[in-house]
Design brief:
EC 2.7.7.108; 41% helix; 3 domains; single chain; transferase; 16 helices; Protein nucleotidyltransferase YdiU; manganese; nucleotidyltransferase
Length: 489
């Protein structure tokens, strides 16, 4: 069995990949949340679990000897505009921890103060975005979506200035990697192919070791990351999730959801929906996420061209072939996920019209995305029940339901089993925007974490609904609807 033995493989690469940097002390740290299940998985000694010693670690005020903080360097396209140096402006990688299964995970403080990459920023995080990331990332994990996770959150006792002065906080997050597409862009922009190759070899060895056995390891790396991103974005789409800021510096090379800023789960289904206050053009709308994912991967492929082949034309040809797999992989996985949500155990290409037409029906009737699938299990035996109540266009619903029932009948599976399986993949509970906003308001204004804690507990079991959590499954009223979410930087 692995033991607690922190590693520092990224830090050991040295510059330019990362820079040593210590957290900035905070004045009066207090616990907000701690994740003992994750701590146990990571084999973190219990001396850090909700204790003053842990508060010293997770506030950055008193790091143990095994923590070697570094700020990772990266570049990125932000809303399509390339910035050659970004980097961890408010985050510090403390160590890499081996979990009980032998998997290595990054341990990172976010909001720990200024770093060499802060670009005049304060390096801090407001309470609201910290609690939002804690809730949403843990909810995503419970939904089965690859994601960074939240280990701890602490109040700093200091204020941070955004539009107004807000309480400061720090989140400790865990991921297989915090390396991004922008990490490769940073090295490529410097024109140092030797260091780029060193970094690519590091990523292969740590995250994609099977690529090392390929005759073309860097092309294999590109193909693996294309597949990971295609699957991830399909999962987002199937849950009505909008990342919000799919800049290349916010896209992980391991296919994990990372950098929860102005993210949101949709209420009423609208493919053009955005929530981010800064996305005024809808670049990162729900329906644009596959296109942006493909665009981001093209930027990643550009960085690898010198490694893929010494022949520039051949490198472009091979990379283009790899990139062309994205749409097929993403569409196939989206069809599979959406088909299963409709109760189709083995979706095929001929199911696409049925899926598409249901989504169109949802848009036309302003149906809630989550409820339109969750309630559908009640419609398996009675087309006038369950989801039917969401559609004012009853004729449109009935026409679609006839086709749907015919498809379900072809499977030779009992309606009870179909309904049961549908409830295992269609969540009853998601982090509703209006509930998150209320929880954050209570925490910031009154120091009241009761709703935050209630949401956090309920979202651990998103496919289960009880009398105690039924109110959390309700969509917002017109007055409760949230149109904008914010990043916190």
């Amino acid at each position: 069995m692995p033991k607690f033995n922190p590693k520092h493989s990224l830090a050991q690469l040295g510059e330019p990949y990362s820079l040593s940097c210590s957290p900035t002390r905070v004045s009066a740290p207090q616990w907000l949340a701690f994740n003992p299940e994750l701590a146990a998985q990571l084999q973190i000694p219990e001396v850090f679990w909700g204790t003053d010693t842990g508060l010293g670690l997770f506030s950055g005020n008193q790091l143990p000897d095994w923590a070697k903080p570094v700020a990772h360097a990266y570049a990125g396209h932000q809303f399509g505009n390339f910035v050659p140096q970004l980097g961890d402006g408010r985050a510090l990688l403390l160590a890499e921890l081996e979990d009980v299964n032998g998997q290595l995970f990054d341990l990172q403080l976010k909001g720990a103060g200024q770093t060499p990459f802060s670009r005049r920023g304060d390096g801090r995080a407001p309470l609201g975005p910290v609690l939002r990331e804690y809730l949403v990332s843990e909810a995503m994990h419970a939904l089965g979506v690859p994601t960074t996770r939240a280990l701890a959150a602490v109040l700093t006792g200091d204020w941070v200035q955004r539009e107004t002065a807000e309480p400061g906080a720090i989140i400790t997050r865990v991921a297989k990697s915090h390396i991004r597409i922008g990490s490769f862009q940073y090295l490529a922009a410097r024109g140092d192919t030797v260091k780029l190759k060193t970094f690519a070899d590091y990523v292969i060895a740590r995250h994609y070791p099977a690529c090392a056995d390929s005759d073309t390891p860097y092309l294999a790396l590109l193909e693996a990351i294309v597949a990971a991103q295609a699957a991830l974005i399909a999962q987002w789409m199937s849950l009505g999730f909008i990342h919000g800021v799919m800049n290349t510096d916010n896209m992980s090379i391991t296919g994990e959801t990372i950098d929860y800023g102005p993210c949101a789960f949709m209420d009423s289904f609208n493919p053009a929906q955005v929530y981010s206050f800064i996305d005024t053009q809808g670049r990162y709308a729900w329906g644009n996420q596959p296109k942006i994912g493909s665009w981001n991967l093209a930027r990643f492929a550009e960085t690898l061209l010198p490694l893929v082949s010494e022949n520039a034309e051949r490198a472009v040809e091979l990379a283009t072939q790899a990139l062309q797999q994205f749409n097929m992989l993403n569409e196939t996985e989206f069809r599979r996920l959406m088909g299963i949500k409709l109760g189709i155990t083995e979706p095929v290409a001929t199911d696409e019209p049925l899926i598409r037409d249901y989504l169109t029906l949802m848009v036309k009737n302003n149906a809630d995305f989550t409820l339109a699938f969750r309630l559908l299990s009640q419609s398996v035996t009675d087309s006038s029940a369950g989801a039917a109540g969401l559609f004012a266009d009853n004729n449109g619903w009935q026409d679609w339901a006839i086709r749907w029932h015919k498809r379900l009948a072809e499977q030779g599976v009992s309606t009870a089993d179909i309904a049961l399986q549908m409830n295992k993949v269609n969540p009853a509970l998601i982090p509703r925007n209006h509930q998150i906003a209320k929880a954050l308001e209570h925490a910031a204004n009154d120091g009241d974490l009761s709703l935050f804690n209630r949401l956090h507990k309920a979202l651990k079991t998103p496919f289960e609904l009880s009398a105690e959590t039924a109110d959390l499954a309700q969509p917002p009223t017109a007055e409760q609807c949230i149109s904008n979410t914010f990043c916190g930087t």
